[in-house]
Fold this sequence. Notes:
Elements: H1 7-25, H2 31-50
Amino acid sequence: MKANMGSTDKIIRILAAVLIAVLYFTNQIEGMTATILLIIAGVFILTSFISVCPLYIPFGISTKPKSK
């Protein structure tokens, strides 16, 4: 798959995942909400490392700067 995420998008996703992890480990979130948010955080981390967001593909969205 072709990369469609820019560096700003990756940083925001990683920061969101870290925030969710901190909330979980400080017991600010728990139960089903915590489980769902941890899954979302995992997806954020995975998509940041592979630079591809599957939800962007059908809409033709790309936050990656165009190469010259």
